[in-house]
Amino acid sequence: METLEDQPIHNLLKEEEIPQNKITVVGVDAVGTAFAISILMKDLAGVLALVDVMKDKLKGEMMDLQHGSLFLRTSKVVSGKDYIFGRQYNEESWVGAPNFHHD
């Protein structure tokens, strides 16, 4: 009689790929934050970039989204204070931990 150790293990679920695109949300007020949460919940992006001129609010919202996204598939939540950051962000400009704040 075969035991569990003798039986091969089969993966019944096919792994889904994490999206490799980036979405930038400009403005982290109530509407921008709602968009960001929706993007995270629906796994629409591999990178979510937040842009706002108010650095303190931006950092707080980014940290909240990072903490909440630990159980989701979005690989990075990043932020910056100017639009150029969101537009030019790419893997080569990313340094440090998977989630970081860029001034």
Structure overview:
The structure is a single chain. The chain is an alpha/beta fold. The chain has a domain at 22-87: Rossmann fold, CATH 3.40.50.720. 31% of the residues lie in helices and 15% in strands. It has helices spanning 30-41, 55-68, 83-88; strands spanning 22-26, 47-51, 76-80. α2 links the parallel β2 and β3. The longest helix has 14 residues, at 55-68.
Can you give me a brief rundown of this structure?
InterPro entries: L-lactate/malate_DH (IPR001557), Lactate/malate_DH_N (IPR001236), NAD(P)-bd_dom_sf (IPR036291). The chain has 103 residues and is an alpha/beta fold. It contains three helices and three strands.
CATH superfamily of one domain: NAD(P)-binding Rossmann-like Domain
The SS-based structural class is alpha/beta
Name the beta content range.
5-15%
Q: Which consecutive residue ranges, at least 5 long each, have pLDDT under 50?
A: 91-103
The main sheet comes to: 3 strands, parallel
CATH topology of one domain: Rossmann fold
Any idea what the shape is?
Answer: elongated
- The CATH architecture classification of one domain is 3-Layer(aba) Sandwich
CATH class of one domain: Alpha Beta
